[in-house]
Amino acid sequence: MAINRYTKMAYGSADEMVFGHSKFPVKAGLGLEIGGGYTTPEVNYAPRPEAGASKEKLVKEYQRITTDIMNRMVQVGFPSVVLETEHVEQMTNNPTWGGEVAHAQKEIMEEFHDEYGIKCALRHTPGDIREDRDFLELRGDKFNTLMESFEEVASNGADLLSIETMGGKEVFDYSILRNDVPGMLYAIGCLGTIDMDFIWQEIASVAKKNNVVAAGDTDCSEANTAMFIAGGLLDKNLAHTLAIIARAISAPRSLAAYEAGALGPGKDCGYENTIVKSIAGVPIAQEGKSSTCAHSDVMGNLVMQCCDLWSNESVEYHAEFGGTSVQCWSESLAYDCALMNTATATGKAKDLRDLFTLSDKFRDPQGYVLAYDNAYRVGEAIVKDGNDIYLRAKNAALKSIEIMEEGMAGKLELTRFEKGALADAKEALSALTDDQDTFMSDSMAKYKEEVKVFLPENYGL
Amino acid sequence: MTSLDIDPSEILVRYNVKMEKAMTPEDAAAELYPKEELFRPIAEAIFEGEEDDVIEGLEAAIAAGKDPIALIDDALMVGMKVVTDLYDQGIIFLPNVMMSADAMLDGIDFCKDQSDEAPVSKGKVVCHVAEGDVHDIGKTIVAALLRANGYEVVDLGRDVPVDEVIEAVKAENPIMLTGTALMTTTMYAFKAVNDRLLEAGLKVPFACGGGAVNQDFVATYDLGVYGEEAADAPKMADKIVAGASISALKEEFHKH
């Protein structure tokens, strides 16, 4: 499939964006329309490690998980749900395992849909297995196995296809630990996008052939690594100003899935998704306060602002006082969605959106830039040079810096270290060329020398 | 639409701004540099993470008659201690430590090249990422912090088979083994490593951490010591060198 770059915004203004509504809703699964006027919980889970011992044990585990979630939704009276199965590596490496799990899950979901009319869909996210012990191996045998996995799940019941790709990670891991913003730009914006262009054309073809939805990617492997390393307010591992620059650069990378044929909803851990939605108008999944079972962040309410699916990231399947873990988390998510949907029904959606945003907007530079009004501005910077994968990523980084500088002049408090990292990043970015070819060739020479596990052939370079 | 501008002071506290140290990193470092005029520029270059300046400083010191191997302890490690102390105090960030460690390691290589003698490290540590897991940024941080604190690191890389970990411990006789994992599904390899080490009679402290790894899990196996932060690894190593037992390490580092 062809690549069609975005050069204009889907929305005329930031204020048009709100949770539960997307410019281009997606029909999927059993009666569900994502972004079609309501929000839906998306429950994400991991099997207990011992369940990975055999295919039979895994299938049984996912049957239990699926039944538990569907039961709880019906018991408490929620109208819709999405289940996301993020593959354990055995399932992707053995494509028929993933197919059998998808089939078993979908059978259960169909029974509930038939009996109760609950709207539901099944997302499968094969693992990005394209690497060996020493290097990324983005093209070749492992890529072929990965595509077989997509084919198997798509033909056996998965309604939405996603992945969290690793392209650019080898250079990113090196750069982020050295405050090297041009390296982050090269890794995420250029190498990541090149890999996304490559893999998403293939995934979109598999989806089209099987009449399911190519849903989208996230820069989990890079921007979320930055967020995770940055940690909380008192951690000293990475300036939060750098973490949000990495996040801003990740938006054009995640956008590449839609440019290659994906339709959405984007993946839950893509905190860059508000920016992506402003450009592409696709529905998005998000995670925040209800994903504390998996990790902490500093924008737990804010990211609900424009979500279409509301996710818990991932929880291991086990018993809690209130039922199994998937039942507890699915119920929490569904109550959040009920509140958002009530706001929509009473004409208060934009007020609730703004309350979500304001409760975290000043908590951290990450939330400040991702607040939907500012996220929209990052989107505008991206589409300004939408056909140039380097310039649009650079624009996103510079715009995020400009937004933070405005914030510092107002109510966004930053430490001296965060300000210093911001100033250094601005200086490094401002010194860069505007010419993609020059940047690419200079960066390739530099990182081939400095990052011994970087293989340009992974990117067709 | 609600105004997107409020006074946030009643709904959040930016504790990092509130707790910020008055002293700049440069001022704090300046108080810690060695006084010896041949060593000070080397320590400053390490703090700045400038490899070329480190080598230049070493060349000047050697030309003035200093022993290359002695310079590792007297200048390079002293400069690196300024960096790790300021990191521990929350005055500088992890990337500063990584860049300084790169500069220090270049300096150590240079000193080794200038001498027939071998430097003596504080101890040897074997590092690895659990079998089945290819996420190695946590291990990279742990290895860099250990090296920055004067330990020799044998880095087995990522997705390391249990057999290979056991063989490395037998061959290298480290004071400590470290294991990192991002996923709950891969961290179970740590239990297998623990059991195989015990079978072989190798009671080496096994420091584990990363991603989804938690203290409850690590506490279930005899050799396991849970590290919440990568920066705990050199602190554990220091305790081991000082004679701490595995149970003493658990007592100190298991916080929950």
Any chance you could write out the topology, listing elements then pairs?
The complex is a heterodimer of chains A (461) and B (256).
Chain A: E1 21-28, E2 32-36, E3 40-46, H1 55-76, E4 80-86, H2 89-93, H3 95-116, E5 119-125, H4 141-155, E6 160-162, H5 169-176, H6 181-210, E7 213-216, H7 220-230, H8 240-259, H9 273-280, E8 285-287, E9 309-311, E10 315-316, E11 319-320, E12 323-324, H10 325-345, H11 349-360, H12 365-370, H13 372-384, H14 389-408, H15 416-430, H16 436-450
Parallel strand pairs in A: 3-4, 3-9, 3-10, 4-5, 5-6, 6-7, 8-9
Antiparallel strand pairs in A: 1-2, 11-12
Helix pairs in contact in A: 1-3, 1-10, 3-4, 4-6, 5-6, 5-7, 6-8, 6-14, 6-16, 7-8, 8-9, 8-14, 9-13, 10-11, 13-14, 14-15
Chain B: H1 15-18, H2 25-30, H3 40-48, H4 51-63, H5 68-88, H6 94-113, E1 124-129, H7 137-148, E2 152-155, H8 162-172, E3 176-180, H9 184-199, E4 206-209, H10 215-218, E5 224-226, H11 232-241, H12 246-253
Parallel strand pairs in B: 1-2, 1-3, 3-4, 4-5
Helix pairs in contact in B: 3-4, 3-5, 3-6, 4-6, 5-6, 6-7, 8-9
Provide tags for this entry.
A: 461 residues, alpha/beta, eight-stranded parallel sheet, two-stranded antiparallel ribbon, 16 helices, B: 256 residues, five-stranded parallel sheet, 12 helices, 5 strands, 9% strand, flat
**For the terminal residues of chain A, how far apart are their CA atoms?**
21 Å
Beta strand % of chain A: 5-15%
Fraction of residues in β-strands of chain B: 5-15%
**Helical segment count of chain A:** 16
What radius of gyration of chain A results from the CA coordinates?
21 Å
Helix content of chain A: 40-55%
Helix proportion range of chain B? 40-55%
Q: For the CA atoms, what is the radius of gyration of chain B? A: 21 Å
Mean pLDDT of chain A: 97
Computed structural class of chain B: alpha/beta
Counting DSSP E segments of at least 2 residues, the number of strands of chain B comes to 5
Question: Mean pLDDT score of chain B, rounded?
Answer: 94
Hey, which two chains have the biggest interface? A-B, 45 and 42 residues
Query: Unreliable stretches of chain B, pLDDT < 50, 5 or more residues?
Result: none
